[in-house]
Design goal:
Blueprint: E1 3-7, E2 10-13, E3 18-25, E4 32-39, E5 46-51, E6 58-60, E7 68-73, E8 78-83, E9 92-100, E10 114-115, E11 119-124
Parallel strand pairs: 2-11
Antiparallel strand pairs: 1-3, 3-8, 4-5, 4-9, 5-6, 7-8, 9-10, 9-11
């Protein structure tokens, strides 16, 4: 079992920055692949970013590439999502996700077994 607890959401203005955190417990963090997804009202949950522990690869949705950065702190068992130049269309509940072992399809929601409770990000224009 892996437990995930997100934090860092809030209400910001367009152009501002936020950093989301996701603390993992239950398994060695070095064995966990992690991702961030988001879900806006009335929309499907969509991929945002992923960080793979094997090889250290990162992946981003086209809509956030160049603005968001995913990073891992293995010592703190925490994955971060730094969000810069936020836009109103980034408004959503953001979820941290994890899977133990190799993530063959890190951008695919079905890859992940464990999910956090979500944190709300609201960007006003």
């Amino acid at each position: 079992q892996v437990q995930l607890v997100e934090s860092g959401g809030g209400l910001v203005r367009a152009g501002d920055s936020l950093r989301l955190s996701c603390a993992a417990s239950g398994r060695a963090f070095s064995s966990i692949a992690t991702g961030w997804f988001r879900q806006a009202p009335g929309k499907e949950r969509e991929f945002v970013a992923a960080s793979i522990q094997i090889g250290g690869s990162t992946y981003y949705a086209d809509s956030v590439k160049g603005r968001f950065t995913i990073s891992r702190d293995n010592a703190r068992s925490t994955v971060y999502l730094q969000m810069n130049s936020l836009k109103p269309e980034d408004t959503a509940v953001y979820y941290c996700a994890a899977v133990v072992g190799y993530a063959a399809y890190p951008t695919n929601r079905q890859t992940y077994r464990y999910w956090g409770q979500g944190t709300q990000v609201t960007v006003s224009s």
